[in-house]
Amino acid sequence: MIRFKNVHKWFGKIHVLNDIQLEVGAGEVLVVCGPSGSGKSTLIRCINRLEPIQKGELIVDGMEVHDHKTNMRKLRAEIGFVFQQFNLYPHMTALENVTLAPMKVRKISKKEAISAGMEVMEKVGLGDKIDAYPAQLSGGQQQRVAIARGLCMRPRIMLFDEPTSALDPEMINEVLEVMKALAREGMTMVVVTHEMGFAKEVAHRVAIMDVGQVIEIAPPHEFFSNPKSERTRLFLSKILSH
Amino acid sequence: MWKNYLTRLVQSLPFFITGLWMTIAVSAISLAAGTLIGFFLGILRTRPNRLFRYLIGAWVDVIRGTPFLVQIFIVFFILPEFGIHLDAFPAAILALTNLGACFICEIVAAGIRSVPWGQKEAASSSGLTEWQQLRYVVMPQAMRTILPSLVGQYVLLIKDSSVVSVIGVTDVTRVGWLTVQRIPHGLMVFGLVGLLYFIICYPLIRLSNLLEKKMAKGTR
Lengths: 242, 220
Fold this sequence. Notes:
The complex is a heterodimer of chains A (242) and B (220). By secondary structure, chain A is an alpha/beta fold. Chain A contains nine helices and ten strands. Helix content of chain A is 38%, strand content 25%. Chain B contains nine helices and no strands.
């Protein structure tokens, strides 16, 4: 579904992605962790070309993302992206946030969009909040609307860039529960997060990045119980100790 | 004596009204055209294309950095040397539209830049075209910043329109100059001229203040 082949990216002189090799299969849930500045956000942002790559090949859902001639709009419609800061449209109600892209990109009728929008809002547990504006919702609720906004496009892939990092602790679980349900339904997901409980429970594989490289990638039971590299052990001891 | 002046001034009121109409006509046409062009340039200015960005930026700086009086002289007296002959009215419209477009371009560009980058990222991630991103996500939010300044700018431009009197457009300012030759009471004559500008501008000033308060309150 997603294949990185010798992918490189630089921000000025900083080598943010250094020879990335990575494959994510259909229906797979991949969790990416690592210290800040390791390139994990950049990695996930490359998948729908919010950041262009400079070298190597990146193929997503059969489309060549590295080729600047590729029609990214078509691909982006198939990929839901959930941001750390939610990025809901503040001038629209929750339902309008969710139905905008289906109507404008998929060109479905308003009626269909609304019924699809209600469905996904129910799914994230916010069926009673469709007319609320983002400012009237808590952080956890806003992030669930953001997930619903992605889901309403019926995407083939969902990307999550630190979806719980901007949330108060008591709101993290409501968002993770929605994501777990999604994972169990067989959605292809790439999740940048430090929520190791989530990784243990639903990830098929966990990858750790450091200085622009994937230094280890393994199924969760292996990754947590028997990490191969010293760097992984060090990182895990830091984030699992609290 | 001044009673006599006042009577004669009241008798010339129709002349002032004609001038007022000219001021309104010049301002309204220039503001409408300037707003359209200003929005267009302001949006272009925030696009990634560097050529447009620099060209527009340079032009806006030149216009903002030179007196409007000089600009209108150039349009009316210098352009004919290059074979472009304009009557006073179209020359006034051209110069004022250009001035308005430049100021409005800056207001629009600043408004667009005030919308957090994440909004554009979210919109483009969902597959919206550039135009749709602008139309449905960026501009509605930018308008909150743009509207109050835009109306405030209208007030400034209406007052700047008085400069077109120097090339012979008989707007309310020129009516003042002509009248004061017959009724030599400057305070009274130009007091009336000032009052007429104030009558047009004051509602706009109030509107601008109102919009500012309203936009500051809204959802966010």
